[in-house]
Amino acid sequence: MEFVLRRTPAHRRLAVFPGAFNPPTRAHEAMALAALAHADEVVLTLAARMPHKQMASDEAARRLEWMRLLADCDQRVSVAMSDGGLFVEMAREARAASGVDEVSIVCGRDAAERAIDWDYGDSPGFEDQLKEFNLLVAPRLGHITVTGPLIERVTLLDLDERLQSLSSTETRRLIEAGAQWHDFVPERIAGLLRPPGEPLA
User: Fold this and answer.
1) HEC string for 13-70
2) Which domains does the chain have, with CATH numbers?
3) Neighbours of 129 (CB within 10 A)
4) Can you tell me the distance from the alpha carbon of 110 to that of 139, in angstroms, rounded to the nearest whole number?
5) DSSP state of 136
6) Which of 100, 103, 111, 192 is the right S-S partner for 107, CB 3.0 to 4.6 Å?
């Protein structure tokens, strides 16, 4: 993990918030702030490679610029790049880079369920991986349901119901359609999303 913005390093509890951030939304901002109730620092993290999405190499710089602006929501929010794409890989990188004892992963219900159900092949399953980190899960049109040993490692975040349906995908669709989208993203980021007359890539 390589930090590209770090203002207030965590002393004990660090939360990694991975995402494509294409673009960052008000839901991302609210989730980061909610996670600070359970961590000393939240690190907005862009993965160099993701198991379910592809990112063109020239996209990283633009998204990191947006993420730096998103981090202005609180002095305890940082920005980093991660080599790994799996939660457990990011947790290991964060622990090695920061030296903290406790690492959590911040995600929405959909991402948590995808990670739990993912086929890890010959690697340890998600339940074993979760011994290395905690999950801070925000509702996304519903709360995650966990049972057994997972319960002790999963914490539910509070997220305004009006933000639960916000997504980067929908924001891009609205921009490309010329529809109203400004309420979906923090104001400080909105001006960078599309040059006049040019669609969002």
Assistant:
1) EEEEEECCCCCCCHHHHHHHHHHCCCCCEEEEEEECCCCCCCCCHHHHHHHHHHHHHH
2) 2-190 (3.40.50.620)
3) 21
4) 8
5) E
6) 111
Mean pLDDT of 117-139: 94
Strand intervals (E) in 148-201: 154-156
In the chain, the largest separation of any two C-alpha atoms, in whole Å, equals 53
Query: Do 168 and 25 touch, CB atoms closer than 8 A?
Result: yes
pLDDT digits (tens, 9 = 90+) for 45-73: 999 865 545 666 678 889 999 999 999 99
Secondary structure tally for the chain: helices H, strands E: 7, 7
**Residues in the chain, overall count:** 201
CA distance 38 to 180: 34
Q: How far apart, in whole angstroms, are the C-alpha atoms of residue 94 and residue 88?
A: 10
Residues 6+ apart with CB under 8 A from 35: 15, 17, 42, 104, 106, 136, 157
Radius of gyration of the chain (CA): 16
Check if the beta carbon of residue 46 is closer than 8 Å to that of residue 4: no
Of 34, 45, 36, 46, which Cα lies nearest the Cα of 14? 36
Contacts of 156 (CB under 8 A, 6+ apart): 137, 138, 139, 143, 144
Closest CA to 109 of 81, 79, 146: 146
